[in-house]
Amino acid sequence: MAIWSKGGDDTEDVVHEFTVGDDWSYDRVLVPYDLLGSMAHARMLARVGLISDGEGRALVDGLRALHREHLAGQWTVEASDEDVHSKVEALLTARLGEPAKKLHTGRSRNDQVLTDLRLWEKDALADVAAELLACAAALLAQARAFEFHPLPGYTHLQRAMPSSVGMFFAAHAQGLLDDLVLIEAAFRFVDACPLGSGASYGVGLPLDREFAARQLGFARWGGIALADANSRGKAESAVLDAIGAALADLNRYAADLVFFTSQEAGFFSIGKGFTTGSSIMPQKRNPDLFELIRARSARFGGLRSGLAGITHALPSGYSRDLQDTKALVIDGVRLARGMIVVATAATPTLKPVRERIIAALTPDIYATDEAYRLMREQGIAFRDAYKSVGCSLDRLENPDHDAVVKGRTHAGSTGNLGLKALGERLDREEAAWVQRRKGFEDAWKQLLG
To answer: What's the mean per-residue pLDDT of the chain?
Structure first.
């Protein structure tokens, strides 16, 4: 029987199957968070006198036991359960009887799932941030190892100007650190507790929302109940939008490497165990993991579009459409984390192939440098020097490639990448995310006793 049933009004099987669908499988992800939210709610109900202190302690003890048993694999949400909330209430009622029936006082499934998702989103964003930092660290290590190693720079996929392996890796490391600004913004957005907003309009009981928020390690309680309700879908979009920026950078990194490791370029080799073979061509070593990063970035974009589509033109207050946002955000985070982890693992195995790189550093790649030389040494205006060099490209000769890399000394160029400052920024970000995680995990540990 569904927890909303009054007796004799259960839905037809076909309706139940359609409305529940595979939602129960995603609720398995939310079980620990639902139990934490219920512990905080029980403590709050006892604090404001809506249940007795003894009932509050019994509920918290029962929920802690369910938490331990869930972690031990003794139970989970099944296809026969409507959702995680129904499952927990049924298990608790079987053990505690009457007190368990009071746990839902002052709470709707709407603010309950909102709270579950916010707790999970905070945890997930902290995980993603840690994984992005690990990826940035791997890229930075490569930038340090090959800081002054020359490499052709490309625009329009045509050789353009001299660059370096250090710049290539450092640029992608900086991109991920820049993305953490957006990850932090999403974290701050979801770090507000919607518990107590009810079915969108609050409840006629003296709830202490601020107390509940503190118990759960939120930075603040949500605010106006209807605004909290309307944030469902928007919060999930914020999470995927922030992560999507990082995946766009990883997608570009992957696209670079598919080209750079091709036989036509051959600028990098990929370590053993990080390529795949062909079922028909014995010689093949394919960069499948980087190709799949490109493909899965596109899949991720589809999930983001799905979220936008579901929330478009919805009226204020809860609508059942919002149930389907849960799968999109959970699938999106899973997909993203897999991409980040494999990119991090593959990066240290990449090695520049110097002879192929030097062969690609043809004299024309130094055309702009020659125009600058004429400007500096002969006082020719840049536009005139540009024209002169462009009309005599066949006269260009290769300089010392390594000297050119080191000789570009303005901030951010190949000879002055600022790797020390980049490393210090990475360290600061790591420390900040450790503190954010500690903030909510300490609160959860207190709830769990």
So the answer is: 95
Name the β-bridge partners of 351: 269
Q: Tell me the three state secondary structure of residue 38.
A: helix
Residues 6+ apart with CB under 8 A from 37: 112, 115, 116, 119, 195, 216
Does 278 qualify as catalytic in the annotation? yes
Q: What is the pLDDT of residue 7?
A: 60
The string of pLDDT tens digits covering residues 252-290 is 999 999 999 999 999 999 999 999 988 888 888 899 999
Residues β-bridged to residue 286? 276
The residue with greater pLDDT, 281 or 170, is: 170
CA distance 30 to 24: 10
The class (CATH top level) of 109-205+219-359+417-448 is mainly alpha
Residue 106: φ, ψ to 5°: 70, 20
Q: Does 156 qualify as catalytic in the annotation?
A: yes
- Residue 293's contacts (CB-CB under 8 Å, 6 or more residues apart) are 250, 251, 253, 254, 339, 342, 343
In the prediction, which pLDDT does 3 show? Answer: 58
Longest alpha-carbon distance in the chain: 95
Structure tokens at 333: 């985070």
- In this structure, which amino acid lies at residue 430? E
442-to-214, 216, 224, 389 alpha-carbon distances in Å: 11, 9, 27, 65
Nearest by Cα to 352 from 163, 69, 178, 185: 163
CA distance 142 to 136: 10
Per-residue buried b or exposed e for 15-42, using 16+ beta carbons within 10 Å of the residue's own CB: eeeeebeebbebbbbbbbbbbbbbbbbb
E strands, 308-356, are: 351-352
Q: What is the pLDDT of residue 15?
A: 82
Q: Which of 156, 279, 312, 410 is catalytic?
A: 156
**pLDDT digit string, tens, across residues 314-360:** 999 999 999 999 999 999 999 999 999 999 999 999 999 999 999 99
Domain residue extents for the chain = 13-101, 109-205+219-359+417-448, 364-397
Region for 73 from its dihedrals, namely left if φ exceeds 0, alpha if ψ lies in -120 to 50, beta otherwise:
left
| Annotated catalytic residue, options 5, 80, 262, 278 | 278
CATH architecture observed for domain 13-101: Orthogonal Bundle (1.10)
- The pLDDT tens digits for 206-233 are 999 999 999 999 999 999 999 999 999 9
